[in-house]
TrEMBL record:
Specifically methylates the uridine in position 2552 of 23S rRNA at the 2'-O position of the ribose in the fully assembled 50S ribosomal subunit. It is an enzyme of class 2 (transferase). One of its GO terms (molecular function) is rRNA (uridine-2'-O-)-methyltransferase activity. This is Ribosomal RNA large subunit methyltransferase E. Gene3D superfamilies: Vaccinia Virus protein VP39 (3.40.50.150). Keywords: Methyltransferase, rRNA processing, S-adenosyl-L-methionine, Transferase. It comes from BD1-7 clade bacterium. The active site is at K112. The lineage of its organism: Bacteria, Pseudomonadati, Pseudomonadota, Gammaproteobacteria, Cellvibrionales. SUPFAM superfamilies: S-adenosyl-L-methionine-dependent methyltransferases.
Length: 157
């Protein structure tokens, strides 16, 4: 398997996925923040919105088909919804764009999204690219939080 984890710090998703992928697969993690080394995980530190960081990730992927893209990216929240929501949607749109570029047919995409302006059109975009789109709210997320995860399964390629 080949897995890409965007917004990987502190490393929880990468740790779990890296152990499942093992040394036979490729696990690529990237974050603007530093992350402790994890066995069998290639870490690229930098801002995913910058072309140079995107290209570093693509260099590691090479021409391999990617089975799973995980995005746990979120902007630094200011507490002002009118500012935070567009920044958050920009990150998830970039992550979906990358997933569409690298996923193999049948691949999966898991992303953290904040419900609000842009959420419904984004979900429609995901539905156009995946056979199934599921919404999940982890029990660790506060009930009043707008944070949710979307899981796209079966990339249409």
């Amino acid at each position: 398997m080949t897995v890409v984890d965007l917004g990987s710090a502190p490393g929880g998703w990468s740790q779990v996925a890296g152990s499942l992928v093992g040394s036979d697969g490729i696990m690529i993690a990237s974050d603007i923040l530093p992350m402790d080394s994890i066995p069998d995980v290639t870490f690229i530190q930098g801002d995913f919105t910058e072309e140079s960081v995107f290209e570093q990730i693509m260099d590691v992927i090479q021409e391999r088909p990617v089975d799973l893209v995980i995005s746990d990216m979120a902007p630094n929240m200011s507490g002002m919804r009118d500012v935070d929501q567009p920044k958050s949607m920009y990150l998830v749109e970039l992550a979906l764009d990358m997933a569409r570029q690298v996923l193999s047919p049948g691949g999966c995409f898991l992303t953290k999204v904040f419900q609000g302006e842009g959420f419904q059109p984004y979900m429609a975009e995901m539905r156009s690219s995946f056979n199934t789109v599921l919404t999940r709210k982890p029990s660790s997320s506060r009930a009043r939080s707008r944070e949710t995860y979307l899981l796209g399964k079966g990339f249409k390629g």
